[in-house]
Amino acid sequence: MPNDDTGTLRSEYDFSEGVRGKHYRSYRAGTNVVFLEPDVAKVYPDSESVNKALRLLMQLAKAQAPDR
Question: How many structural domains compose the chain?
């Protein structure tokens, strides 16, 4: 993974204890990575806060939905 135009890695990157394929199976099973815009990330800095806000939004939407 190059960090500049020369194709070299920074000396502080140490992959000597890396495990090849460690996350391969879980990645192949599917990912749910979501990128937040910077203004949103300031308010919701972690998964817990994002999930809490989305659950509240789901509750509000359900409460506002007309009865079927």
Answer: 1
